[in-house]
Amino acid sequence: MKPLDRRTFLKLSLAAAGAAAPLGAKEKKDNHPLSPDYVGVLVDTTLCIGCRKCEEACNRRNNLPRTSEPFSDREALRTFRRPTESAFTVVNQFPGSPSPDQAVLPTTYAKVQCMHCLIPSCVSACIVGALTKAADGAVLYNPSICIGCRYCMVACPFEVLAYEYDTPLTPKVRKCQFCTDRAKGTGANPACAAACPTETLVFGNRADLLAIAHKRLEERPDRYVQHIYGENEVGGTGWLYLTGRPVTEIGLLNLPDRAPALRTEAIQHGIFKYGILPVAFYGTLAGIMRYNRRRESAAAEEDGPPPEVSSTGSKEKGR
Amino acid sequence: MNSADAPHRVTKPLFTFGTLTLLLLMGIGFSFGITRLFLGLGSVTNLDNHSPWGIWISFDVACGVALAAGGFTTAALVEIFGRKKYIALLRPAILTAFLGYLWVAIALSFDLGRYWNIWRPIFNWQGNSVLFEVGMCVTVYLMVLAIEMSPSILEGLKARIDDNEWGAAVLRKIEKPLMIAYALIKIALPIFIVAGVVLSFMHQSSLGTLMLISPTKMSPLWDTNLLPLLFLMSAIMVGFPMVILETIYANISFGRKAEMELLTPLARFVPWFLGAYGLLKLGDLAWRWNGLNLGADPGETIALLVEIMVGVIAPFLLLLNKAVRRSMGWLFFAVSLIIFGVVLNRINVFLVGYNPPYSLKAYFPSIGELAMTVAIVSSILFCYRLLVTYFPILPGYVAATPGRPAVPREERAKTVSPFWTWVIRFTAVGFLLTFIGLYVFVHERAVQSTVRSVEEVQRVKAAQPVHEAMASASYPQRPEAYKNFYRLDSDYLNSRSEDYEPVPFAHRIHDELSGGDCGVCHHRYAMSEDDRVGEDIKSLHASIEIQLGGPCAACHDDMASNPPQACGRCHAGPNESDDPARLGLKGAYHRQCIGCHERQLQPAPAPTECSSCHHPWTPDHAPLVILAERPAPQAVTRACLECHPKTGQDLLGTAHWNWKGQSPTLAGYENRTDVSLQLMVNNYCIAIGSNQYACATCHIGYGWLDSSFDFSDPAQIDCLVCHDTTGTYRKNPLKGGLPDPDLDLVPIARKVGRPSRQACGSCHFQSGGGPNAKHGDLEPILSDPPPDFDMHMGALGMRCQDCHATENHRIAGMSQTAPALEGRVRCEKCHGLTPHGVAGMLGRHLDDHVRTIACETCHIPTIARKTPTLLRRDYSTAGRDLPETKDQFGMPTYAKQFGTLAWGMNMVPAYLWSDGTRRATLIGDKINPARAVDLNSPMGEKRNPNARIFPFKVHAAVQPYDTKKRTLAIPRLFEDYWVDFDWAKAIASGMKAVGQEYSGEFGFTETRMYSSVHHEVVPARAALGCSDCHRAEAVNCVRCHRGAAGMDRPEHTRKIYPEVPQRLDFKALGYPDDPAITGGRFFLKLGRGTPPQ
């Protein structure tokens, strides 16, 4: 084996430097300015009675297909469900009381839907920008430019995106749109929050909701786990949960506080910021090519036309 | 260009066994692809919402791009780093890369959901997206590859022109522009070659960045920030091996000796890349060792180990060996391992290591996905074969000239040694099978599906302490303004939701359950007119050291004018500006109600379902009911069942349908479920069995004419008789329940709704053969009574089902005459056991009666107030043609069918002990004709603590019986006695109809039948006063309360109904005398107020 010569060394180190750039890149949050106007919903799972009125209201507001059983049918709660292309939100039941001070109750209920993250992974992932974060905080989907690559579904840490796999020509990604009206934005009235009879769901400005949630935690330490789920998870979400038991017991995931999108964006922008590295690499390669061509033509001038390659060909030809 | 080593077109025939096999595989695979285009991804793939990327992305795209790396690596080697010796390998490498990327794009167009939007990323840029960069790079690179391919293409076209082959004439016309293009491209080519390398570096690494966006779903074995670098290095590492593999394979299949003189030195580069990659990979794993969790998923660990050992370490060691590099077979094997390793790596990163936590079923590719993948690979091979045939790509054929065919560079003496051919074939197949086997093993749970399900909710029967108030009654003063019943009907809520009818709220029972503590619900007090928040009353009183726990009126005298404030006083809209956290009215009601109801298990579980408190408005059925013109009644029911199939099934099990059911209160038949109305004898039309089609007019079915009626067919259910809201539905009399044939059922079906009192009453007000004939307290006027006629149905507008609670069409309520029972209706459910508190000081005494006197006794003083009720009929006098005479009520006193008749109106009911159970005389029971036979009678007596005095309406009759057998005779009245008026014949045919033996001899006996009285409740001020039953001197307050002189309450103690001299016959009820004098049933010996002397 030939020892490492200068050229090879240079090549390797350049490659290493270029590829190591992402390691040192800082995460930039200025791709994702956070607005104080973001809306959200506070879900207090200790109050949910599992009536599924939120599912029914969502179904009606979004003109989703009629279900085979009415929403008052509690049989549906017996299986663990996830949002699908015809159900943007579902309620699941879990055995055990919702909080320590409600020990007589046998069941806890928890609603699942798009969390409308502050730094949405799906928005960062979308190749054409079909998913966007609106000014009021809703994460919206625009099917007209979507190509159906489903990278957003890979990206979502909550796994709430659903796809219309059975539509051949115009399948869409389906998820909660926060009842956004094109003119008015989310307005004041997401269907689920309006329908909830016990006001388990409280819609409002996210900062206000955090204040309310902290107040509840302070006033009832015997009732709640001292944590607002969604305050910081994956960079913060629009939908906030108060629970009386660990979130993993009611079908939610333990997620880190760092928004995953920041990681890939740091790597991408670290490598490709202003195109410096690619252009520099291009220049380097072009330089090497030029150098080798000059050397070749110089050798050709010296040696004459290159010898014909013999038909047998020898095994170990020089470089 | 014509030197022996220059690229030449292959002259072997295109269609061989191998290429035909490829075409076959392409056909099979693309047929799945076309199915995808017509029916959607779901029809062909196993993708779901948790695994959106399958092998079409992880293999076709990710591996496809990785394995096409031979293009840029060879281009860099030859053109940038000037190793011209390898130039013969360049064109095939570029071709492989070009075809690889082309077919990746084609494969992608099947995987993309909206493939027709594939051009969008060119105009819609989303710079944060890794996939955007990958997509744009690949698109540009594909164009670069096309340009790099174009010299071969153009040379091939030129050769076609020169050799005058098929199509030369057409091509000659554009020869000039083609050659100009050729020259331009040749000049510009270096730009594109460098661009190609840069672009490849960019997207090969970014493919690795792709999966880093979901770190929570990635296995730590592959989740590292170095993944882009690892992908880049593995792509570089697999470039030359792909060239080696493809070169050997092409040469073998064309029967040529492989160019080992090029491949062997090329192979010397490979260990460097392998080593660098291996070091980086192992170093990264070592750096992250603690977070790897190697034992967690053995399948993944094995996959990683195979990827490293088989894919990196083994070939590294092999290729260090000169002999391996020189041997075609071993070299082929070694590079195959590397390629296998890279493929496995991509699949590990995209599939094996991708573990979405909510996935119900682990992803495994479907047949369609596998077939398409095979088709894509076959397409690449076929196109390769196609292009090398028509374009000069492969080196070293001596070109054909006219007169001499093309000669391969070095012809082998015989065809390729079959041994090596088969080794290569077997190795390929073997790798494929190993790969599949490994993948299946790695994801053994791929072949099982796990569906999580939640356990059935078990209700905890916790022992809750009985509230103190129930144990020791306290009788606080309550203001007159205090109402027993509210209808929660708020404009605010109505403006926001149209889903439900207003909620009837029984205030009294809730007051009792809270122990009279108003503050449980009325928890705040707004101090001033515009105070929307109020003060918490507990803290209000705590500040003056008063502990709450009872009614406000206990201390406050002015509660009448200043009652506890209504909920809507503070709770209007949610999150209002003065207190953003405050509940809205809807939330307040629901949390308060449901919150308390969930916790209450004693004395009985409280309702927590939505519909147990308020009923949804019935939607307009006009657009929902689709019927032909003049439909048959069963067609109407079938239309109902389209949307309400479960209701049909529910009804088939109810007592209203089967006319039988559980009879836990029928003495002797407590455990039976089959005691039907057919078995009962009554003294109106005697029995049902012999008059089936007539009595079944009031059946909720269509046409129960005889025993052939199909009780299991839900289409025979008559939905309209109860749910008609037009008031026009009529049954056809004597037709077993069929409707009036002249009725058009369509408009009735279109206006169905909640049953009204008229709907229930269409049968129940007519029982006994005419309006109010039987019950006495169920008169037609109750469809729309004046307010004071009946408090519930008149003043409060309640429907039957508000008290007769219904679940799944099982209707609560016990009739004295029908055996089946589907739930009890009790006054205490709403009014509680201490309902008289509102009467002030008298309340205590009135509540004492609750144990002994039924509510109905005092609160229903008279029955049949509008329509006379039948009191007596004498069948023994029937059959004669006597003139019709009428009594003072205008009712006939004689009818030929029935005999003499007696009616009553505004009458006082009979009073009997009843403990809720009854005795009945069924068909075939032996009777004693010497005394009046009680066809049904309430059971109960003074000594029975469960018995109370209830009002009853008694119907006495004289009806036939079998004198020999001493059983009641069942005559056939309709179409028999009432035609011929021949008792003997009618009884004979009737007994036969009910399957009873008949001796042939009949006589007449007295019978009695009791109907319980529960309806026509009068307002409280019209209820019985104390003196209506007790002697006036006994109910004087001063008699016990010595110091209460002048505190008499004549409005309660006087006789409210002076026209009834003695209402209760105490002696008949078992008392020695008026219990107010002689003492109560068990304990109260009055005169307690008189201290013993």
Can you describe this structure?
The complex is a heterodimer of chains A (319) and B (1093). Helices cover 31% and strands 12% of the residues of chain A. The radius of gyration of chain A is 28 Å and the shape is elongated. Chain A is α+β, with helices and mostly antiparallel strands and 319 residues long. The longest helix of chain A is centred in the C-terminal third of the chain and has 28 residues, at 276-303. Chain B has 1093 residues and is α+β, with helices and mostly antiparallel strands. Chain B is built from 40 helices and 20 strands. In chain B, the strands form seven sheets. In chain B, strands 11, 12, 13, 14, 16, 18, 19 and 20 form an eight-stranded mixed beta sheet that branches. In chain B, strands 1-2 form a two-stranded antiparallel ribbon. A two-stranded antiparallel sheet of chain B has the order 3-4. Chain B is elongated and about 135 Å long. At the A-B interface, helix 1, strand 2, helix 3, helix 4 and strand 6 of A face helix 1, helix 2, helix 4, helix 7 and helix 9 of B.
